[in-house]
Amino acid sequence: MSGVGKGITASSIGKILQFTGYRVSAVKIDPYVNVDAGTMNPTEHGETFVLEDGYETDQDMGNYERFLNTSLTRTSYMTTGSIYQRVINQERSLGYKGKTVSVVPHVPLAVIEQIKQAAKKEDADITIIEIGGTVGEYESILFLEAARMMKRQHPQDVAFVLVSYLPIPNTLGEMKTKPTQHAVRTLQESGIFPDIIIGRSPESMDQRRKEKIATSSMLHHSDIISAPNLESIYDLPDHFLKEKLDVKLLHKLRLTSRSNRTSQQNRKSWIRFVRKTKNQKYDITIAIVGKYFGTGEFVLSDAYVSVIEALKFSGAYANIRVHIDWLQAQDFEGKDANNNLQRLKKYAGVIVPGGFGTSGIEGKINVIEYVRKNKIPFLGLCLGMQLACVEFARNVLGLKDAHSTEMCEDAEHPIIDILPEQKEKLRKGDYGGSMRLGSYPTVLKKGSLVRKVYSTETISERHRHRYELNTIGNEYRELFEKKGLYISGTSPDGLLPEIIELDQKLHPFFVGVQFHPELQARPLDPHPLFTAFVEASSNI
Ligand code: GLN
Description:
single chain, 540 residues, alpha/beta, Rossmann fold, 3-stranded parallel beta sheet
């Protein structure tokens, strides 16, 4: 079922196979009909993870990129919607040469074709394919059929891993294997016989339960792997190594280890990273001011998972444990706003992350005003950067009616305005995959803070936006710079502002970026901007 940790499990399997010296890649299959994850509300589905090539995907793709230390392409992601689109496009271009196109086998064959293309593109020896959803549900039937057909095509080269949940009902206090036994049975009905079963549960599975599951599945009990909750998700590869899952999987795939100096080195660096995330010298608390947190009684931080991880990596690197407090933007509006703003004093730094729509906007602007005036380190990501510009225009330049045209179409001072090419798209109702998406270069200004932080002149970062700081044909840029808010990064032609920063004489760390640096942060390669922010926040 969703949320059980399939993505982290699959990523960790990828990681331990990397340690055996093989080139490993990943493919994620999401059974929903949406063609990509771009049109979904983050409260429904968590973060939209944008790939270098601009494809808007599920947050699990972020796990793969982070665990495997790689950048994937759109070929490595598919949904029911995208696979049907592929089949239909092929049919429209006479790709089926006049034949009747059927759901089976043509849809599963298209799935297999794309998996093979992805493996080729990534030059992978082993590809981990994660089929999302729950065994037995209607939605994933075609993908399971593709898996079955693939095993038939390549019996030696395909191994199946079932990730299942083992509940411990409060009333019993005992771990139950029945749901897993049923899942195995259901999977077998689809013609798929798992080679390994991974039991996710709050605690470790004992031998008796492993044997129960083994009996119902035709496996040896040593093929039933316990995956209890661990202190950190990055502990899972090590846990799997202790369970010898790497050896077992290679054996199932009839491969022998290719472990060499580089792969051993990678393993050591990984273990060092995990250790570093746990033993830090300093502690700081960062506030993230957003609006996607409430789903009923729960706080859902999934919408910002890459930001959380980016902070973790930079913290591990800089020897700082970063705690995060989630603050609701709306709490900084209305009658309690002032009281709540005062509470920001205790934070080492504040992040205003990306977002869409009108709610919570004034609260975020109030927060930015407070941190600017009180010199609290600030990092604005995408929408956060845009609102920093609006705040500055209103409160420093005195342009009281400054706003973004996303929230106020006829703003007197449209400090943030829609990108010209986006206007036409919105008019036509073209919302799918149509933002300014993916990697673009940014040139950093000499002498700027960000130039020092990145220690290079040109960078490449991933984007996802329709609006932009409006500097063409107006005097805003000049007004901003006169008062100390510099545009310190632009597109190579100098036209699109990509980064703003306050003069360091005015503020120790106040940076806003139009892109999403969090998407490129990696455990062993922390993002320089997050590292600089964390260091500025900790005052070391
Ligand atoms: N809503 C803003 C835009 O479209 C910001 C997007 C974001 O934060 N990802 O430009």
